[in-house]
Amino acid sequence: MAEIKFEEALKKLEKIVEDLENGDLSLDEALKKYQEGIELSRACSSKLDNAKKKIDVLVKNKKGEFEFKPLNETKSEE
Amino acid sequence: MVESIPDLFSPGEEFKNNRHVFTVSEITREIKTLLEGSFGSIWVEGEVSNFIASSSGHWYFSLKDRVDGVDALLSAAIFSRATKDVKFKLENGLKVICSGKISVYPPHGKYSLIIEKIEPKGIGGLQLALEQLKAKLEKEGLFSVEHKKPIPYLPAKIGVVTSLTGAAIKDILKVLDRRFKDAQIIINPVKVQGEGAKEEIAQAIEDFNCLNQGFSAGEKVEVLIVGRGGGSIEDLWAFNEEIVARAIYNSRIPVISAVGHERDVTIADLVADLRAATPSVAAELVIPRQEDLRQRLEELTTSLKQDFSDAVISFRGQVIDIVHRLQIAADHAWEISANRLGANVKKLSLLNPVVKLDLYQIKLQDLARQIYVRAQHFVSLKDSVFKGMIESLSNLNPLNILSRGYSVTFRLSDGKIIKDSQSVSMGEEIRTKVYQGEITSKVTEVN
Lengths: 78, 447
Fold this sequence. Notes:
Structural class of chain A: alpha+beta
Strand order of the largest sheet of chain A: 1-2
Order of helices and strands of chain B: HHEEEHEEHEHEHEHEHEHHHHEEE
Radius of gyration of chain B: 76 Å
Oligomer: heterodimer
Helix content of chain B: 40-55%
Shape of chain B: rod-shaped
Number of helices of chain A: 3
Structural class of chain B: alpha/beta
Distance between the termini of chain A: 42 Å
Largest sheet of chain A: 2 strands, antiparallel
């Protein structure tokens, strides 16, 4: 599975559980959803275990374009 | 009668000797010196009326009151350099305490109070300003609940508008350390107090909205935290400014305000889509606890498994049901087919040539029998006729006649029965048959 955001994965998982609960799926569909759900669950779980913080500072360069700089760099400049 | 009219303008004796005629300028100057010199800096309390903000930036109005049924009025002015320190909006009817100097303006011959400082009476100026702006923005609908946008759950990108060196950012980052870290924090650093703070805050909010236009749907900054740590009401003032309020109102990204402490409610808080009591609380609102998420995930995974297993059980039940129905249907179809087959076999067997042959054979046998019966009948019929004939014949048998005494005579030569005596000649031998035996004779006489 491609890189998916935790929030998105959780939302998808919620949707899948809801779909399964409604119960009007074919067996094939249900199986597919179940497999997808398990994968999402694993992806979420690994995200929970391995989440890293990412902090950027928004700066405008001389041209007036937005740029991101890591927080530490910005602080040392001050 | 016409009375003589006294000449009012002809000087009387008392004026003629000791008169000093002031020029207007002179007397005005003297009044000016007297007034301005004798009062100095003074405090005046009164009610604002006839307020005019001139295009040059100066404000003109009157201060008035009424004591013991007597009205009094004092012209007042605030020059443009002093107006910017006035945080509240001057309005007619407002009771104020002003500090300034009495000044005479010779060209108009008027004296006025030139105000350096002005405070509303009763409450502080900042407080009044706040109330006034609040009333104005409320009337415009900036605080309306309908305009408030929902705060996204688990935003992946969180924009923060605050000072890089303040307490707010430290608190927010501390929360991030404690909680689920899978969010990108983008800080747009601004001054949060002093000259230019309000403009920077408003611009930063606008910047984030601008930045989002360049992002695809999944990359957008989903929520903004706008705020600062605690301070005096003056320190927090930027968050009470109209420009900031409007920037928050116009933001397409939902805004959580987080200004100062719990007790500080700013206009930014009122306009924001959500007010957090402190920056830490703001961060906690959008950065969930890791344990909560883990629990939610476990619940979902359990439901997923349970629901799938339920679905499988339900499908199995359906299959069993269908197989059962299929069996019944098949049995029924078999029965129908079997019946039909039987009927057709019957029909077919009727059409079988062997059966026809049998039928023909039966018919043939029948015909044969009929022929036989008829033949027999015919034969017996003929037989009885024959028997009748035999009987009649026997009646004709000459021997029978002979028995009665008759006889028959034949010519011996040819055996012919002699019926005519003339047919025999003399001497010829004849044989006579009688009942018992024969007699041979010789013709001796013919008559």
